[in-house]
## 1
Amino acid sequence: MPEDTNRINIDHVAHLARLELTDAEKTKFAAQLKDMLAYVAKLSEVDVTGVEPTAHAVPLTNVLRPDESRPSIDPALVLKNAPESARGLIIMPKIVE
Amino acid sequence: MNYEAVIGLEVHVQLKTQSKLFCGCATEFGAEPNTRVCPVCLGYPGVLPVMNAEAVRKTILSGLMIGCKITQFSKWDRKNYFYPDMPKNYQVSQYDLPLCLGGAVQISGKKLGVTRIHLEEDVAKSFHFDTTSGVDFNRAGTPLMEIVSEPEMRSPEDAFAYLTALKEILITGGVSDCDMEKGQLRCDCNVSVRPVGQEKFGEKVEIKNMNSISGVKRALEYEIPRQIAALGRGEKIFQETRRWDDEAGKTSVMRTKEYAHDYRYFPEPDLMPVTVSDAMLAEIQKLLPELPEARRQRFIYQYGLPEYDAGVLVANAALAKFFEKAAGKNPKAVANWMMSVSDITTTPIQPTQIGELVTAIDAGQISGKQGKDVFAAMLTTGKSPAIIIQEKGLAQVSDTGALEAFCEQAIAGNPKSVADFKAGNKAAVNALVGQVMKLSKGKANPQLVGEILAKKLHSA
């Protein structure tokens, strides 16, 4: 969904992020997002003719590790951060497919 | 109007590695829930994922096996979505620069094109209860290869053959075990129909939840006529995702998680791109195995096997390997025995023992029928055929001295059969052979008995 700096589809963005926003929040965040995008839009002022697209600022490739397994962390520690758990599973409200 | 189907498959394959894609957690199947996890695969902030070199190699090897072009520069991207199976709220995948491009899978009579292969991370497994869902993150972060086909399949049989051939290739290359029951190979299907002769594709439907290759075939056998019938009634096909219910034998519309798929891909800043040098490619090329199609041809040529036998043996990598050790002097006979084995990996039998069994039968020590009993015992006990023959007291008597005595006894006791034979009734000898078999309690070698009797009757 193309979002230009002039008009942000706040409902769409909120839906993608699974957020329920009140009308007041929608107005507030839409304005904030617009400011952020306007700030980032400054980048488009730079003339990039002839510049190769780049995915990373650091000129490094092939940072790889050997395929060796290591002990995982204590399961009790894992579940400690879960709001609810049962039989080792992290429990949440039913996911609708 | 005549319609034809257009089918494309997205196959997800778990790579056979010891550890996950970005962390050292073990990938083994069946561990207790959430015991193979760490801050990296749980998506904690501030962690540093580092790519598993073996997963990159196995993806490239897969590409080489099906003739893909290996891209020299490859990068990873974040695919953003909110769902509890992905704690980071994005899946690390490859968007525009996958490791492998192009390629094809050979099925009988044609080549089916592959669009691309990319390397991504698997997501967590969720379980659904009455009012809640439970998530196990053990699978999250397992190296997962996605193989996307061109929409070149035209029938459920094409899809079945493609998946079967692809699975054989991946198993042969040691890339994955492709055990669908363990979710190591999963497949989504895109299918549409169009009037024969029409260039433009029809509206496509995605089918999910097929748990076996034959399930994919059954789902397509249901879905294609469904779409044709709907068009025939003047209805429209809408782009949707349908779920296959194997028990009910039909597909039904899935409630979609999200209407607009808006994954907002962007380059993964925590992972460096991979460049594939000529030296790295040469190293991986050394790992290229003999592919199933080439092996089938070699089995026909080298062992003189019929096409059918070669096909059955090669379709099962373990069986093919075992056969090559067992082939010996009579490969066709060895192949016959081996094709009756359902799972060679679970029997204690040794390759050379099958050759010994074939030799015992060829030498007339036991009959072919007795051979079946001996073989059954070999498969369960792992004992050599010689020992089983001895234990069961099966050995045929081929000692001519003993047989001659039986033959003389039979001749002396059956003057009528002897007279009939001498009067020209050659079949009368069978009654005498029968007598010898009886006297020897079935252990006499019938062929030798026939020869001895003929000699004795002629000279008498």
Note: Chain B has 15 helices and 18 strands.
## 2
Amino acid sequence: MDNIIQVGMAELKIAAAPKKLLTAGLGSCIGICVCSPAHQFGALAHIMLPSSIQSKRSQNKAKFADTAVEMILEEMIKNGASASKIIAKIAGGAQMFKFVGDSNIMNIGQRNTLAVEEHLKRIGIKVVAKDTGGNFGRTIVFDPKTGDLKIRTIGHGERTI
Amino acid sequence: MKDFTELSCIQLDALREIGNIGAGNAATALAQMVQAKIDMSVPEVTILPFDDVAKLVGGADVPVCGLYFAVSGSITGSILFMLPIERAVLLIDMILGRNSSETGAGISGDLETSVIMEVGNIISATYLNALSHFTKLKLLTSIPALAADMAGAILNGVLAQVGGVVDDVLVLKTMFTREDQEIVGHFFMMPDSESLSTILQALGVNC
């Protein structure tokens, strides 16, 4: 377990191989995992909301898709990665509650997914794999050495992307 | 703008007392529904940063049962009633007067689903009624939305609603008792920004 770094909600952490990054219980949130294969290190951000712009409290950059991707890029470059070599894998963005009516909260997962993809594209990071949507939670473990992203669920199987 | 961390003891006491009155009414409603004596109380009211909420049920990947309600009327906000799956199963057994484990390991049948939803309905409605009575505010809840999955996953969707603005939630620990059986669940109240000030002002304990 010493080799596993836990990433909480609205946090961003960096790890160098052989350490791995874990975030538990992703619902509508998204785990953005990036690595630079040549350097064997990576980052995981657990974002909660699509945009920091309408938010009154936006100090925590890891909470929002738009600011978290910038922070990721900054951290990766600081550690010696070149922007064009960074790849990303994303998971999460589920809709946890079935609900009558059309409150915003109900499609937050989908809005998060779209925002993450849009902002990664904007800063030039390629999404090579994703496991998003559905109505179930995900616990993910990211290995910066291989780039493998392992996804565990309750009742919806296990997979590695 | 107010947030929960600025609340004084008196204000917390007021919210706890309302919780207990609500719980008393909920117990009566539950007891009538199942024709057995079921007690409910709110032994603890706390304010938690939302990062710690998952720890209350044992961690972000613990399987839980969550019921979500949207609050509307004079204030807006969210209510979440959450307990670990195996506790939820025991609660269903307790309410139906079954022997333990008759429900099985999960909440899949129609009867089990409607029992747990009804419990959530009763708790949220009676709590809001008590709050409404003291504040003279008009408060309505939506029908419940049920999810059974990882605690963290259930929390994120609900907390995303307030996550951009508030970092803390009001937690009412709720205890159900039937004879010598005791089950603890947690009831989370998350008024949207400005709504908490509205409640405290209406309670007359705004300072």
Note: The domain at 4-160 of chain A is CATH 3.30.1330.200 (60s Ribosomal Protein L30; Chain: A;).
